[in-house]
Amino acid sequence: MTKFTDLKLDPAVLRAIADAGYETPTPIQAGAIPPALEGKDVLGIAQTGTGKTASFTLPMVTMLSKGRARARMPRSLVLCPTRELAAQVAENFDTYAKHTKLTKALLIGGVSFGEQDKLIDRGVDVLIATPGRLLDHFERGKLLLTGVQIMVVDEADRMLDMGFIPDIERIFQLTPFTRQTLFFSATMAPEIERITNTFLHAPARIEVARQATTSETITQKLIQITPPRRDQSAKAKRELLRAIIKAEGEACTNAIIFCNRKTDVDIVAKSLKTHGFNAAPIHGDLDQSLRTKTLDAFRDGSLRLLIASDVAARGLDIPAVSHVFNYDLPSHAEDYVHRIGRTGRAGRLGTAYSIGTPADAKYLAAIEALVKQEIPRADPPEGFTLSDAAHREPRKYDDDKGPRSRSPRSRSGRGRDEKRPPREDRAPVIVAVEEDDSHIVEVPEAKRSEGRRPEPRHSEARRAESPRPEPIRPESGRDERRSEPYRDSRRSRDGGPAVVGMGDHVPDFLLRSFRTTKPVIEDKDTEAEESTEAEVQNPVEETSEN
Ligand code: AMP
């Protein structure tokens, strides 16, 4: 068996490895480190949990220990799809380079440009960045990429999902042709294959077994329910989720609960908190400092339940997670593998529960085809029955919270592939009420669709994870949209939508509305609301978690 001492790593790196307590290299490390140290390009097909971060960090530290950083010209570059992953790589770098004098900078959104500029000006050996933020710095003229000798692309398949591939190609082109590339992806989609064929030179290809096929430490269970009403599916799932968490009791020390859409991440987190659970959400629309605080709390054990989107939780290395819950079955089968891989790490035991409804049949089939096994079916916890509220018709736009607490982005409870209700069931006017109940805003149909969008997989995700700075700041733009949801500067005289292209000379008949608008009904489901409020005031069993 290969030992770290066989790998020709720098003695300072070997000491750091010993300090970290690692005894033997993982397969990806044993496979990737030797060719990397020979200066070859590496194509690593591996996912998080396999030790892949060290497989590129250890040779980088070894190779960079000779030579010096120059102002504004980083010597190496690590690109990560999300801020959290970039921060995690930076932590790994600190661990493995602690006995060297190498310097690093972390370029991620949500951190002031000034601080980051200062570091780059001084010169850094390793620059760890999300692609958008890196290009922002480059475009501001603060950074030269012509000194990059080693470039790492981490989680390339997630980059693809998030629409970062054009940025990655551009960054490749800004770095010297002679650079060494270490490229990692969990899967090899055709687009990833194309990039590697274009930018890697005769790479050493190292592929490690998929986590799903090797992780016997995870007990998987699928609980299927058929909600009495399809439009109450989300409510039924939340009830079942609470029942499972309660039934698991103390065995569930902490858990990550995955939802497919950011809106549901917020709703589920809010609902769990309402029911007395110690829970918090994490997704790409939340402020970076809040995301960091939430993750820190989850890591240190002060937060028990982390409700997450795939993008936010992908690759997070939190060693002791007892449970993973798929509140939604993922629509991309490989996400199932990534999600459940958050538990059962480093030889520990873990439990992964998935909640399925008849609407998820095709997702379930795809997951089972990918992992080549049937997810073991389990019954709902003993005595579980859906509440009366789950049988009732929901309120118009969300089935858990009254309009008072609803943000304009969390209006729909529908899944991405669920059909919209028939037109006659749709109210002609949607009423969105701000947190403080102060505005009532009519939401045009076009805007309504915003609330239905899943976690972004394309260019919008790039904006969410790596905001563009001045002069254009999509992140701040998004926030502005949220606080002033649907104000349009081009309003017509009676406050209706402006007619584009007619300036001020719009004939009156064009501005008249022919729609009949229903009066605003405060809340159809006041009983359910009352019962929720009663539960908030009197969260019987779970108050101790708070
Ligand atoms: P990664 O796949 O890079 O996210 O790493 C997963 C976890 O494995 C991290 O917590 C690392 O600290 C740990 N790890 C990495 N290499 C080794 C090793 N050779 N032996 C034991 N643990 C390791």
Q: How would the global form be characterised?
A: elongated
The tally of strands reads: 16
* CATH-defined architecture of one domain: 3-Layer(aba) Sandwich
The CATH class assignment of one domain is Alpha Beta
State the end-to-end CA separation.
48 Å
Q: State the helical fraction.
A: 25-40%
The main sheet orders its strands as 3-4-2-5-6-1-7
Query: Structural class per helix/strand content?
Result: alpha/beta
**Fraction of residues in β-strands:** 5-15%
Query: Considering the protein shown, what is the CATH homologous superfamily of one domain?
Result: P-loop containing nucleotide triphosphate hydrolases
Which hetero compounds are present in the coordinates?
adenosine monophosphate
Low-confidence stretches: 396-546
H/I helix tally: 21
Q: Mean pLDDT, nearest integer?
A: 75
Radius of gyration: 25 Å
Largest sheet: 7 strands, parallel
CATH fold-level label of one domain? Rossmann fold
Catalytic activity: ATP + H2O = ADP + phosphate + H(+)
Protein name: DEAD-box ATP-dependent RNA helicase RhpA
EC number: 3.6.4.13
GO biological process, one term: response to temperature stimulus
